[in-house]
Amino acid sequence: MILIKNAKLLRPEGVVEESLLIEDGKIVSIGEKDKSDVVIDGSKKAVIPGFFNTHTHAAMTLFRSYADDMVLHEWLERKIWPLEAKLDADAVYWGTKLACLEMLKSGTVFFNDMYFFPEAIARAAEECGIRACISAAFFDFFNPDLLEENLKNAVKTLKAIEKYDVLRSIGPHAVYTVSLDGLRRAAEIAEEMDIFIHFHLAETEREVLDFRKQHGKLIVQALDEIGFLSGRLMAAHSVWLEDAEIELLAKRGVSVSHCPTSNMKLCVGKAIKYEKMREKGVNFTIGTDGAASNNNLDMLEEMKFAALLQKFYYSNPTLMRAEEVFEAATVSGARAFGINSGLIEEGYEADIVLVDLTKPFMQPEHSLVANLVYSASSGCVDTVIVKGEIVVENGKFVREDEHKILEKAGRVAEKLKGSEEQSS
Amino acid sequence: MILIKNAKLLRPEGVVEESLLIEDGKIVSIGEKDKSDVVIDGSKKAVIPGFFNTHTHAAMTLFRSYADDMVLHEWLERKIWPLEAKLDADAVYWGTKLACLEMLKSGTVFFNDMYFFPEAIARAAEECGIRACISAAFFDFFNPDLLEENLKNAVKTLKAIEKYDVLRSIGPHAVYTVSLDGLRRAAEIAEEMDIFIHFHLAETEREVLDFRKQHGKLIVQALDEIGFLSGRLMAAHSVWLEDAEIELLAKRGVSVSHCPTSNMKLCVGKAIKYEKMREKGVNFTIGTDGAASNNNLDMLEEMKFAALLQKFYYSNPTLMRAEEVFEAATVSGARAFGINSGLIEEGYEADIVLVDLTKPFMQPEHSLVANLVYSASSGCVDTVIVKGEIVVENGKFVREDEHKILEKAGRVAEKLKGSEEQSS
After folding, report:
1. How many domains does chain B have?
2. Which molecular function terms from Gene Ontology are attached (chains A, B) (predicted)?
């Protein structure tokens, strides 16, 4: 039992100063002054829902700031892929631990990940006490034999990570790396195993034009024909879509992960059609993408980029109001993964962040939500509670030695870089 | 004398681990292990130049998150102007103190300000130990009588703030609020008094089109004809410029303050022509603008917005590399105001920030500059030294009681809002 006293709660109807009681991982009561074994003094703090980061490649923290300001194919071919070729489970484990530390300390309680060595990711997430959905990613490069082999491996991986306290997804990478047959099979497996699907959709114009040239139809229409679209699907990026495709995504209950920082840094050439998605009812969520193309995993920053990119690109300052992007970064992300979280409400999961209101950038308090979206940076994150357990307290990670994680991840990153520079 | 030991210094040629000695406000020696009365252990810290924020309306922190996501004229007319009409010197003083606290704690050592009640601003800045250039702003609304009166007041104000430890500028607001005659007179006063000029230039398309319609020429050409352009001029925004105008700015030694977050939030419709400015040799600097249109004064965040906006808008990921935007935010800002600062070099002013490298987002250390630009948030600012004096230590402001500033500014902001809501 945890009782938070004297704090300002960000409720759906506004900010109220009330006590909040957590028991068995849930918010059991608001406004009650119950006894509790743990009492947190919430004076000069706000209680807000934690963030749901719906598209990451967490272990790419190892490549943070390793290569920037480059043209996409040079960046991938000369810098990222050669290093990724040297990854092993230990490297991914430490890269993911660093990512979990960074995410928790910036108020993120959940991440939806796709990367190599899923079991290492699942172990890192479970140890750090963060919620996660871990993907068994695969490519088939349009080779039926490779498809069979990689699907078999993916299923094996999914079974291997079942024992961890994480959600699971199958991760057919994208339409330019996986055949339509591979996508269809992935959707069938997701249905059979009752898991999610993690997929990159319409990130660049080239992907869309190439697909249309080859198949004579829009990507989302083709995906619908093979039964790929459902409430299980988290479609990352989803930038280059026609209105008819957006309508279809909404109709099938697909969730979208918008990654504005990555979109800007990698120059995808367009801003996501948020207004159309909102109008049609697409479940709109926010992701940071990997640290190699961002270069952090900070959802507070990502919300600001999302809102400002919409306003600027569509020349409309009223687009994506602070309340809307905050909802996308919290409750909409939770909803995508069937988690009853993301609101400060009785009966909701206790995935909660205490924000320090004595940071200058959090003053004055005209609007807590606008301060969070447009002004806050991660330094205001004081305490983070995931599933009712305190994992960050007074800005410190309490489960493990932070310095050990930084040192191990730093050493792994240096070694990867060193081995590459020797071999090139 | 302050000796910083064991830290990683961000030198122009790269990162080196050396000691650094500060005496009489200057970096007197690098690499010497001298005795000193104050020794700072720089282990796991980086020593970087502090930021120069070249366009602010600092006291607008009072209106942070008071009104967002609105159309410009409604925002100004219904929300900002009615509150500004109720400002007094005390309100501006506390708003500026809050701004100085926020800026110092996020690594900013200088701000170039334009707002009401300049003497209150100067006093707040001096007390906080931050460098500043304070403007005596004026409008004439194309009324010659008003011009005479406001110029007289501006000169009076400039004399009144001479006693403070700040730089001074005259601030003719913009071409849509000040006549060409007013601008010419401002330039003459700047010359006579040997001070700077702070001015809004070509922020919106409408400003540019209206001017051209009325005068039949480009704004910068008209400004050149009246002798307005010189090394004294800091031209904020400078978005809607023709190439010929950029060339003229470069030729006359004008500095530009780029405010990307404000430009995006207020939907100015275009990204500044950075590449052309770089090519022509314009002194390119970075500003946050006021907190009402940002909503913070965080130069770490501003650098990321600047670099990503360039890349995205011009579809070129190689535009505005991390090193370039870092230079714009530091040494180029210092240069604009004739301050020999912004580099970790012997003989330079000791305006220095110690950055905590044990924050997860600062690891691994492939590139310190890219980590600062693309990954860092203000939580990593550990110690700030301005003119050789420690003003922030271990994340705490040492000159005054932080809580008193927050409380006073918060109370002033509430009162302004309350009085407005009563009267409307």
Report:
1. 1
2. 5'-methylthioadenosine deaminase activity; metal ion binding; S-adenosylhomocysteine deaminase activity
The H-assigned helical ranges of A227-292 are 243-251, 260-265, 274-280
- On whether both A235 and A361 belong to a single domain, the answer is no
A362 contacts: CB under 8 Å, gap ≥ 6? A355, A356, A371, A375, A376, A380
Same domain, A17 and A87: no
> Hunting for tokens 């870092």 — which residue is that?
B326
Could B62 and A364 be called an inter-chain contact, meaning their C-beta atoms sit closer than 8 Å?
yes
Distance CA B254, CA B277 (A): 11
- Whether omega for the bond prior to residue B364 falls within 30 degrees of 0, making it cis, is yes
Instruction: Give the H or E element holding residue B131.
Output: strand B131-138
Enter the ipTM.
0.97
Residue A411 lies in a domain: no
Rounded to two decimals, the pTM is: 0.97
Distance CA(A413)–CA(A404), nearest Å, equals: 14
Print the domain residue range for A26: 2-48+346-397
Q: How far is A305 from chain B (nearest CA, A)?
A: 8
Residue of A nearest to B401 (CA): A358
List CB contacts (< 8 A) between B269 and chain A: 315
Residues A25, A59: one domain?
no
Domain stop point among A283, A305, A336? A336
Q: Which of A261, A265, A295, A415 to mutate to test the interface with B (most CBs of B within 10 A)?
A: A295
Whether residue A223 sits in one domain with residue A185: yes
User: Do residues A380 and A322 both lie within one domain?
Assistant: no
> Least CA distance to B368: which residue of chain A?
A65
A249 shares a domain with A296: yes
Q: Residue B21 domain-assigned?
A: no
Q: How far is A23 from chain B (nearest CA, A)?
A: 30
pLDDT in tens, chain B (424 residues): 999 999 999 998 899 999 999 999 999 999 877 778 899 999 999 999 999 999 999 999 999 999 999 998 899 899 999 999 999 999 999 999 999 999 999 999 999 999 999 999 999 999 999 999 999 999 999 999 999 999 999 999 999 999 999 999 999 999 999 999 999 999 999 999 999 999 999 999 999 999 999 999 999 999 999 999 999 999 999 999 999 999 999 999 999 999 999 999 999 999 999 999 999 999 999 999 999 999 999 999 999 999 999 999 999 999 999 999 999 999 999 999 999 999 999 999 999 999 999 999 999 999 999 999 999 999 999 999 999 999 999 999 999 999 999 999 999 999 999 887 666 5
Residue B196 maps to a domain:
yes
Q: Compute the distance between CA of residue A67 and CA of residue A80 in angstroms, rounded to an integer.
A: 8
Q: Look at residue A289 and tell me if it is in a domain.
A: yes
Residue B124, domain CATH: 3.20.20.140
* CA distance, residue B238 to nearest chain A CA (Å): 17
Can you list the alpha helix ranges (DSSP code H) found in B161-217?
A: 180-193, 205-215
For residue A269, the chain B residues in CB contact (below 8 A) are: 315
